[in-house]
Amino acid sequence: MKNPPCNVARASAGSLKRCLRSSDNLHSGNEIGLSRRVEEILVNSGTVSLLTRMIANVCFSALLFFCFVPTTAAQELSKLPYVPTPQIVVDEMLKLAGVTAKDFVIDLGSGDGRMIITAARKFNAGGLGVDIDAKLVALSNKQAKTDGVADRAKFVEQDMFKADIGNATVVTLYVLPDFMERLRPKLWTELKPGSRVVAHDYYMSGWHADKRLDLTVPEKVTANGTDKAYLYLWIVPSKVAGGWRMDFDVDGNAQQKIVLAINQQYQVINASAENALGPMRLEKPLLRGNEISFDLTVGNTAYQFTGKISDGKMAGSAVSPTSAKPVAWRASKVPGEPK
After folding, report:
1. 182 located within any domain
2. Which H or E element spans position 270?
3. Quick one: which of 7, 96, 124, 232 has the fewest CB in 10 Å?
């Protein structure tokens, strides 16, 4: 896990001087020298007039702006101290995600690589670790080779926000809340429906976890001040918001034309339905990954619908208490609606 760096823009005079003396704060030796000269001007009130100090302040602010803006994300990531995830937590995170040999796991902020190496060694899964620290990346690749899983466990030096996660079936995270919030849109847009996200200790606001697991882990006390560990699981849902046109083949020969309207907040959905006769009774809509279910009354018969979603289409079957034979149904997005 990583902690945020000092905020130069809000630093006091003393802390500002300490920040300026760090070679990590600016891009080159010339810029460091310039910042130290500006610092001398700012703090030497006995030899500089008030007007000069005001001008120097403006120049110094401009210098910080142009030096810091291009590398803010990289600097934040590179300055975050590494706190390893206890091995028992690693094991439970992978179990919570239901990792198997068919999965490809990506660990964002992979540290010493134990998450990906464990996924490869214990679950025979492939995986990729992403970390901004070159030394940790080298250590991880070396350990994967030592453990005989280098063919399935790879590690790269990269900004986690720029990593390609589209081929992951599982993403694991142990980062602070601010990073969880910034990663949320990336996870939502880049991961395929049915992919799982597992996080240690911190959750994403607005996107409620599908499952939470509480653990007691004594070895966390030294680094975290608590022996509690909280694991959160999200299953990435299909995007189903909008209008759908459904064909329902009652008895195989009396096809019903039904329009569905679905509102969606991640995996939480509500829906309504109507046909040529007017509104219909729809209850218990549920979305889990690329699977959808709901209860719908057609005429005087209540049906339980289940189906799968793929590329702007739904298809499945419906059953009722009055018939043992499932009835096929299918739906497609209303033209003009995003898939």
Report:
1. yes
2. strand 268-275
3. 7
Which of 173, 180, 174, 177 lies closest to 220, judged by CA? 174
| Residues near 3 by beta carbon (within 8 Å), at least 6 away in sequence | 80, 81, 176
Q: How far is Cα 113 from Cα 132, in angstroms, rounded to an integer?
A: 13
Range of the domain at 219: 87-235
Task: Judge whether 228 and 203 are in contact, CB under 8 Å.
Answer: no
53 in the same domain as 96: no
Question: Do 297 and 275 contact (CB within 8 A), yes or no?
Answer: no
**The domain that contains 267 carries what CATH number?**
2.40.128.120
For 294-332, give one letter per residue: b (16+ CB within 10 A) or e: bebebeeeebebebebeebebebebebeeeeeebebebb
Q: Which domain-ending residue is among 235, 258, 279?
A: 235
Beta bridge partners of 200: 231
Q: Report the distance separating Cα 48 and Cα 216, nearest Å.
A: 59
pTM for the predicted model, two decimal places: 0.76
Domain-located, residue 80: no
pLDDT band per the 50, 70, 90 thresholds, residue 336: confident
Q: Are residues 99 and 221 in the same domain?
A: yes
| Residue 2 forms part of a structural domain | no
pLDDT of residue 69 exceeding 70: no
